[in-house]
Amino acid sequence: MDEIEINDFLKLDLRIAKINSAENVEEADKLIKINLDIGDFGEKTVFAGIKKFYDPEDLVGKLVICVNNLKTREMKFGDSEGMILASSNDDGIFLVGTESGAKPGDKVT
Q: Residues 36-41: contacts with CB within 8 Å, 24+ apart?
């Protein structure tokens, strides 16, 4: 495992985001297009490779953690403006969320 310095970690702007909408990307085997509400930071679109593990309609309303300052990535299906955090193991992929009380735009520390 490569270690990083605290200053590397501090470069990340992790924020709570609420999933406003989600839809399968029909031309892609793995991708779901997700619209995030990040509070005062506005809305962002991300493409997540979670299609095999989640139905888009089940994602709407969930609170997730977003890498808010990730450089936009141009993709075949549109621009991905961030990333949502998930864990994975042999059983699948699991979105990293938060307890109730957190609000879109809150900083993750």
A: 36/64, 36/66, 36/82, 36/84, 36/104, 37/104, 38/66, 38/68, 38/104, 38/105, 39/15, 39/103, 39/104, 39/105, 39/106, 40/105, 41/15, 41/68, 41/105
